[in-house]
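Extended Data, panel c. Modelled sequence:
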Amino acid sequence: MSDSLPNLPEQDYGRSPRSGMNLLPILIVLAVLATIGVVVLRSTGRGAPDVPADEQLTLEDARAGQELHADLLSAYRDLDARFREPLLWAATSERPLAAVAVPTAEWERTSPDDRRLLRAMAAWSVRRVASDPLRYAGIDRAAPEAARVRERAKALPSDAWAIVTGPVSADGRELEVDRVLVRGR
């Protein structure tokens, strides 16, 4: 018995039978472009400034983002507790978002790496917010819009997150959100 392979006719499956053109490089380029397209579409920062399309936001980053968020808000002792955890922002709208609120002054001091950690926190908070939307929206269970908010929260896609900002009110209790800094969609 021979250890060599049998003599098979040479076939190049990467060539077009009509033109003899090598299709393999074209297929590879198409596969790479399709992969990049999927990554861009799934990117948590699509369309947002300073968010790389291929950014990977890990659970460890999200946990570090929670610690950072707590540190950023520690100077604001009177700030309402609801700003210290994720919010269901625009809860009664067609497209609510899980949001992390950061005072404008604090956001302006954060480094690019800190911003990435806050994006991770926001991205990983979507399921948490969707699991108890009324709590994170600050809406009473008996409120007329409660059922609609719960229904929309069930359908939140994984990229339905944002980081929002605004100045802290004069009494230090409210964060007057006036701007979306970064969005997942």
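DSSP finds seven helices and four strands in the chain. This feature is highlighted in the accompanying rendering.
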